[in-house]
Structure formats: C-alpha cells, structure tokens
Amino acid sequence: MSLHHSLETHQNLLERIPEVTGRHLPQWFEAIENGPALLRFEERVSWLKDEHDIPHGYATALVYEHDQRRRAV
Fold first, then answer.
1. HEC states along 1-18?
2. Average pLDDT over the chain, rounded to whole?
3. For 35, which DSSP code?
4. Domain extent at residue 17
5. Using CA atoms, how far apart are residues 58 and 17, in angstroms rounded to an integer?
6. How many domains does the chain have?
C-alpha cells in the first residue's frame, strides 16, 4: 500500500483525529483489530468510513498508521 498523501499531511491528520472523531489513536487501533477480518487496505478504509462515519482522509491515515505500527512490532 502506498500513502495517498504526504508524510506531513499524514502526521497532521493523525494529530487531529481525537478532535475530529472524539477517539484517540489507541481506541481506533483497537476498533480496527476487533473489526471484520478485511485483508485489503481499501476495504478497511471503507469499513471505517461506513461503520464509524469518519472522512476518507482520516480513515486512510488510521489504517496506514495501524499497519505501520503492526509491522514495527
């Protein structure tokens, strides 16, 4: 998967997620992990958008960051 926006934009989106969504990153990562077992990146983005009613850019940033952190472990 490639990032659809710059790393600076990605970081800005991550910083605004709690304000925009009312949830902090660990809460979103838990939701992704406990959500449906979707394998494709875009499927997980669509699920977040549809299930949790968040904008596409934030859903993309969440899934990308979740994937990055899982790979780092």
1. CCCCCCHHHHHHHHHHHH
2. 92
3. S
4. 7-72
5. 7
6. 1
